[in-house]
User: Fold these one by one.
Assistant:
Number 1:
Amino acid sequence: MSLSTEPQVLSAEEFGRVCEGILNAVATVIDGKAEVARTALIVLLAQGHLLLEDVPGVGKTMLAKTLAKTVDCSVHRIQFTPDLLPSDVTGVSIFNQETHEFQFRPGPVFAHIVIGDEINRANAKTQSALLECMEEGQVTVDGITHTLESPFMVIATQNPIELEGTFPLPEAQRDRFMAKISMGYPDAAAEMSMLETHQSVSPLDAVRPVLDLSQLHTLIKTVAAVFVSEPVKEYIVSLGRATREHSDIRLGASPRSLLQLLRAAKAEAALNARDFVLPEDVRKIATDVLGHRLILHRRAEASGSNAESVLAQILNAIPVRAGARG
């Protein structure tokens, strides 16, 4: 009788201990951004992709590198530029003179964690090279499909679209990111600490892996096992439908976004040492998951509304059904 090699579900204590180790490692590099790091961890555990948007120099790429370094797995970085080609991302078939056959040479997207730096500096054709990778976990080149290793996560950074040399991400691309978060400027104490500790050496050099690939699989399986009741599922569906029916919103939440909201809420619950989801878990992560997918009518934008404010209205207006709180 052979022993099963399937990863086991962790207890709340073990799960919390490993996750705390990851967050502590990130905090040694990114000071004063505990909530940002926590959301990034949620996306990793929920098997999603993360978009970091903010002005240059606030630590977007550093956060992506640090999170990737806490896991002992393959990590590749892609610097997106206007002249980057789709084959520079996915790979290319090269003719072998000896065998007289084409051989596929994998691109940097073949890794467990892919850091896409300044993704919106590439043109739309190159950005779209990630669509199949992010949704289906595979790459098709010259009619041949190549499967990516699991888990697979894209952590992309982008500058605000009003900055020079940027191309807006198309709706289909944004919808594949589970969450979008902004770093924001650090507070005065964090900047003072940075000036003291980052002068001669980068704290990223001291970061060591907190867990290996097998342990990451176990964390992911633990999150997947979190229970979601029917009332909570109905609450998520109600939120999604409300975004499609709101008078200020031109493009509401997609069915894919609701699936990702469900997975993110399960990770939020697990980080709160629970094996079941509460509406509060959904509400806490809803803006990060849904905000970047919504497109408002121009009249709403002209009146000063944005996706976050409209989502706040919806969250306040949608009642929580009895029984959804466990």
Number 2:
Amino acid sequence: MCTGLIIGKEATEDGIILIARNEDSSKVNWDKCLTYRNSPQYYPEIDNPAVQNGKWVLSNGVKVKVPENNFSYSSIPDSPSCSNATDTVKRRFEFEARGINERNVAISATNSMEDINDRVKELDPFVKDGGIVEAVITTLILPQAESARHGVELLGNYVETIGAGEGNAVLFADIHEAWYIEIASAHHWLAVKVPDDSYIAVANGLRLHDIDLKEEDVLHSNGLYEFIVSNHLLDTPDIGNLNFAKAFGMPGNPYNSDRVWLMQKLLTPSKSQATRLEQYPLFMKPDSKVSVKNVMNVLRSNYKGTLLQGIAERAIGVNRTIESHIITLNSKLSDNFKGVIWQSISSPLGSPYIPLYTVLDRIPDDFTLPDDAYAPVQAFWAFRALLARMNICSDSVKRDITGMWHVMENGFIADYNMFIKSATDNHDDIRRARQYSISALNRSYKAAKQAYENITAISAQHSIGVEEVVV
């Protein structure tokens, strides 16, 4: 139930490729922790419980040949002991929502595709056990992927040979290009390269339409067009102008289309579009070059002041976001600084976006969550608790806290812009980048705790227990 965005390098302020997503949950409390995988789950192979008879066994039981590549990567998984992660097996990596590997390949996974139509579910039903699902996609693909396109090809091959357990959309990027893939049945998928001068906005419904399957910048499952034609999934199928979303999904659900409309309205306000159309343009050009700060605002947005105020069921910025990230990739920088993750711990409505350089290979203890129970000394719960307190405070208190985060973010952005002007791959700059990310994490955590204490004191006359604060 997430909201995602991909922006090409000619559409951004700094010539960066950008992928971003709010990771939302049906539950408000869903603990996340930061980590850096010096090696993937299957390495080393000797005496490794994840490797059985030459096969890598992932958390939900899916088995694949042990990959040849074993790239290190950053990650934000669920807590190792998270009782909410129903597929957890022997504390394996689970729901690693995003990351960048040592080849500067980035993944954000996933946007759940909830509009798969019943006809497709009957024709090519999702694999019930041991299929390719959100919980394992980042873990499976990121330590192997040598480029964004390679990541798409790897994922597509796994879907065709093993089968998908659910419908998903995944965002891929490297320093050269960005790709978007939709998995719409057990064995069928479609992926497109995002034009350099455009963006794509994604909610929880299939988006791919007007696709020429013969184009070089389009990848898809074997037999996709034949599957559509033979099963009459479209009235007039056209291999050069395919409506994948209509063939496999049910376009037009306001729960999804409202968010797509809002993102396009915010980034391209010059284009007037009716609300609640069945389908919106797949790619659009922004009215002006998009900055990281613009994307932060989009991921926090709601319908206030628009035609859908008081009408739309689902905003983009919601309390039940469990983490939010903006990944930028800049080909002009040296290798160690090409990729940066702007990470919000918990919902960005109550926490800042913190810059994490990919050289950050040691995470502060406060951000490595060992348990899924409320623990005030852990960073995730500090941000979660602050947001819960904010929700019962006056508007002026809310403005003070959100204003504090905006000031902090603006400082982070200014510091980043200053640093990259001279950053090289030398030891001193790598050390400075690591220290800065650690400092930014600790400063944000300290500010969240202090703000919580302040508004708790203000609200002392109200009797509010811990259980009320964190749910």
Number 3:
Amino acid sequence: MSAAIIIALVLGLHAWNISEYALTPGNATPVAPLVKIHGVATNPRHDTIMLADVYLQSLSAWQWLTMHFQSHVQFVPAAALVDPGIPNDELGAQGFLEMRDAKQAAEVTAFRTLGWTVPATRTGSIVNGVVSPSPARSAGVHVGDEIVAVNATPVRSTCELIGDVHDLAPGTSVRLQIERVKISDAGTLSWGPVQDLSVKTAAVPSSVGVSGCTGLTGRPRSWLGVSGEDGFSYRLPATVSIDTANIGGPSAGLAMTLSLINELSSGSLTGHHVVAATGTIDVKGDVGDVGGVAEKTVAVQRAGASYFIVPEVEVATARAAASPGLKILGVTTLSQALRDLRRLGGVAPQPLTTPLVTPDTGALRRSL
């Protein structure tokens, strides 16, 4: 084979994008330097609690070939990263929305764990997926947009949104009132004023089943082509910001929650050990599983952590990737993580500012 043919083949492999991604170890980053809290006392002698991330890279055929000779690489089909019908161009926005949700849940859970009452207000249905093709996609609905009304009737949850179109005949025009999302280059979400958007419903695809919402029976007659999550606004006792520029996904939730509790508490939460954590968090304190745990374990080891807290279902994966010097702790709840840290010499969280019941005088629009 001539050199010219080989060069042409290599160039072709570089240009040929395939439907596969590579997960490789990212960074283990201390959370405390990323956090700013105003309005309550904070601990200047915070522990080192790290979040772990991975690099997600779309692959050309050439990269796919060469990465098979590297260690600590997980290959993921593009279809595994999004729900059926959701195009890959939604992936970035979905990741940043998931991070925004993780930060919100971490803040609420941290304050509630320390004894504060944090009132919640439902705000609408936040779009977390747009099917292609679909009426919503054609009308320009985007991941992160919040639907707050249908035909001037307020929407306070995703089930209310589904109910508003459930029994409409296909081809019915509806007027959505939407707070349009803006996503910065660094992945920060903000919302603009309400805009009207006209969308014509379509017949429901055969792949769509019953909604599961209370009071709605049978399959819907009409369909917009969006999936959603309930929007909430929480009235926090302080202003909190966490700088997670260019990091998407929900997996930093547990690490951010632990770090916030440590920032707001006296004493050492970790017994002065260097601890990393991964796992989703919700406002009830439940910890959920995440992806890329083997690659995150490598990142945590490189950063010098002594302990790595992971979702219970991921313990075997983390231990298989860990060196002998890294101890793996599996948890299913925040309470369990705090108990494990006390066994390592940490103290029970004691808030530096005495919690007060926050009067429900109108929720703040956003806490992030």
